[in-house]
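Q: What structure does this chain adopt?
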Amino acid sequence: MNAKRILYWGGFIVVVGLIIWGMIAAANKAEKENANVAPVDKVASFDWAKGATSSPVTLIEYSDFQCPACAAYFPVVEQLLTEVGDKVLFVYRHFPLEQHRHAVPAAQAAEAAGEQGKFWEMYKRIFETQTDWEDLADAKAIFAGYAQELKLDMTKYAAAVESKENLDKINNDLKSGLKAGVQGTPTFYLNGKKISPKNYEEFKKLIEDAAANNS
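A:
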């Protein structure tokens, strides 16, 4: 085999090797990313969940803090959780819509509060005051004010709000919703099945029926 042919085959092997390495790296990256994209029929360790883990029913909501419909459903969900008690485990996932400029900052604020054990308190505060901040040019100062009210460590809060991990969590929730077929907010999944209750009584009955069928 002459020198030119050796160089040709040597270069060919190097190119093939680089292609294979690239494919493996891409596959590993995709697998790592998908590990943080939760399915709609299971609760992940990084999910924000409220209720008994032994509950026969899991209710997952994909929601946007600036969405008026989500704010309208907020008290409905709160009442459901009070009335059905340990029959349901509630999971909240972020699904910020592009048209809502404060949706991501609000989610970041909730995640930052969550790092100090106050996710649900911030979640409640943000939804209850949506009309106070939805039309502001910048709502971050409002959310920081809520963090102060909750007596959070503001240095840790400020760092958490801007952290890559925080934004990754929000984006992974969004990817989870897109993978499940979520197109708007709020979208609910009851034990992995998408539901669209028209009123409170129907919502409650769906949960109670699911609990009875899975007890």
